[in-house]
Amino acid sequence: MIELKADKLVFSCPDVHASAALSISFQRTLRIPDDENDYPLPPGLGEFPLRHIDDHADRVPASWIEHGGVMLPMYQSEAMWLYFDSKYDVERHVDYPFAIKIATGKINAVSGKEWKQGLHRKPTQDYVVVPGQPWLDGYCVEKGIIRQFVAMPLGAGYTAEEQITGKAEHGGLQIMAIPMKREVYEKRFPKREPARFSIGRMPHFSMSDSCAEYGEMGLAPGGRMKQDIYEDEFDLADWDLEQASRCFVHIANSMVWHQITGTKPPTTPPTAKEYTAAGLPWFMWYDDKRAGLKGSKVLGSLKSIATLGRHKKDVPLPENTTVKPQNVIPLRQGLNKNQVREFEEVGQ
Amino acid sequence: MKVQPEFGVFIRQRRQALQIRNNSFSVRGLAKELGIQPSYISKIERGEVAPPSEETIVRMAHVLGEDPDVLLALAGKVSRELRQAIVKRPMLFAELIRQLKDAPDHALLRVVREVRDGNW
Fold first, then answer.
1. Residue among A221, A210, A216 nearest A251 (CA)
2. What's the pLDDT score for residue B111?
3. pLDDT value, residue A99
4. Among chain B residues, CA nearest to A328
C-alpha cells in the first residue's frame, strides 16, 4: 500500500515484513548547467509538496483522475532528484531492501525502455536498489553519468518521452517499489545484538489542449552529472513481485498550482551560478564496493534541453552559465564511526 | 525515565541520512533548530540519557520528517493527544485496543488512506 505522509510517498508491505517500508521524496534542487561539462551532485533544497489527485478532481484533467496517484508542482526548467529511504530494522541493523523502477512519461529512467511490468536485467537492468542507491538525479546515460531531470512542458518536444516515442501522452513520473522476499531478507540479514551506535549509510509532436490548459509537465534530460546507478547485488528471484505497488506522480506547472490546490508552490530555486558564487557546497558520492551500470544507449542518444533548443532555435533554459564548483564535499558509502565524526566536525 | 537505546539509534541514523546532502542536519544544526545543547543530542543518540520531553520529540519528528507517534513509541511514550482521547473514553479505547492488538496489519491498514492507483 502507498500513503502520502509529510510530502513523502510511503510504500509499506506489512504482509511481507514489519520493516518492509520505503519512503520516496522529491527534492527541489538547482539546475546544473546544460553545457556538456560533468558536474558534481547539487544540494537538496527541500521537498516538493505532494497532493492526492482525488482531492482536486474538479480542477485536474480527466486523464489524471484515471491515472490516480499524486501530483507536485514544478516550474518550467526546474530540476529535481528523488531521495530513497527504506525503513531501518533495529534488530538486523539494516535498511529493508527494495527494488525501485522509475519512469518519466513511461520511459524507464535507467534502461530507456518503455514501461513494462516486472524487473529486468537483460539487456540492461531497469531498476535501482536501496539501500545503496540513496538518490536518483536523472537519466542513466553513461557509466557514472546521468542527465539531470528537468521539467519541461509536455508537448514542447523536449521530454524523454517525446524524444523516444514522438508522443506527448503520459508526462509525470511513474514509480514501482518491490520489496525483498521475507524469507530471503531474514536469511541474508540475520538478527544481531543491539548496537549503541548506528553506522552512517549511509519528430512531430501533437499537443493536446489539456496539456496547455493544466500546465502538464514532463521530465527532460538536462545537464550531465557524475552519479553511478548501481548493479543489483542480489538475485532477481529475491524480489517479491507479488507485493509490488506503483504510483503515478503527475507534474503540474507551478504557475497553475495555486489554481488547482489553492496553495502557493515553493519559490524558484537559486541558479547554479548564484549558488556557486555563494560558496555553498556541492557533493560527490563514492561507493567503491558497488559496480555502476554502463548506461542506456537509448537514453545516451537523447538530446539535452539546451542542444535541442539550439536545433529548434529556441532558448528553453533562462540561465545556463557554466560554473566551476569549488566547494565539493566527498561522501562515501559505508562510513565507519570515526569517518562519521570527521564529517560531523566538518559540518559543524 | 528509562533509557531507550533504540530511540537514540534511530535518531542518529535518520539525522545522518539527512545530513548527507543537507548539512543543517549536523548535531549542532539539529540542536540549534530544537533549541537544545549539541551535547544533549549526542547523549541521546548514544543512549546515555533518557529520551527528551514529548514536546521536544514532536519537534524532532517535524524537523527530521518523521511521524511523531513513531518517535514517541520508540521513546516509550504516548502522545498527550492520544492519552486525552483514551482518558475521555477509557473503556471504549481499552476494549478497542485489546481487540485490535493481535489483528494483522492489513486489517488495521484498512482505516488508513491509501494513494489510489488507476489505469495507466
1. A216
2. 65
3. 98
4. B21
Other beta carbons within 10 Å of A212:
14
Interface mutation vs chain B, best among A1, A96, A199, most B CBs within 10 Å = A1
Determine contact: B7 vs chain A, CB below 8 A.
no
The residue ranges of chain A whose pLDDT is under 50 are: 195-212, 335-348
Closest among A44, A1, A24, A10 to A84, alpha carbons compared: A24
pLDDT of amino acid A335: 46
Best of B15, B21, B74 to mutate (most A CBs within 10 Å, chain A): B21
Are A33 and A323 within 8 A, CB to CB? yes
Q: How far apart are the two ends of chain A, measured CA to CA in Å?
A: 39
Q: List the one residue out of A259, A271, A215, A274 whose CA is nearest residue A75.
A: A215
Tell me the residue length of chain B: 120
A348 near B CB under 8 A: yes
* Cβ-based neighbours of A49, under 8 Å, separated by 6 or more: A7, A72, A73, A263, A265, A266
* Average pLDDT of the residues of chain A: 88
A-chain CB neighbours of B15 within 8 Å are: none
pLDDT of residue A205: 36
Closest by CA position to A218, among listed A152, A146, A137, A280: A152
> What is the reported pLDDT for A170?
94
Give the residue carrying C-alpha cell 500546465. Answer: A215
SS (H, E, C) B27-89: HHHHHHHHCCCHHHHHHHHCCCCCCCCHHHHHHHHHHHCCCHHHHHHHCCCCCHHHHHHHHHC
Assess A247–B contact: CB distance below 8 Å, yes or no. yes
Q: Do B115 and A281 touch (CB under 8 A)?
A: no
Residues 6+ apart with CB under 8 A from A234: A97, A129, A180, A184, A188
For chain B, list the domains and their CATH numbers. Answer: 5-78 (1.10.260.40), 89-117 (no CATH)
Q: Per residue in A256-274, pLDDT tens?
A: 999 999 999 999 999 999 9
**Interchain pair A44, B112: CB under 8 A:** no
Contacts of B13 in chain A (CB under 8 A): 88, 198, 201
Task: Return the domain boundaries, chain A.
Answer: 2-332
Which parts of chain B register pLDDT below 50? none
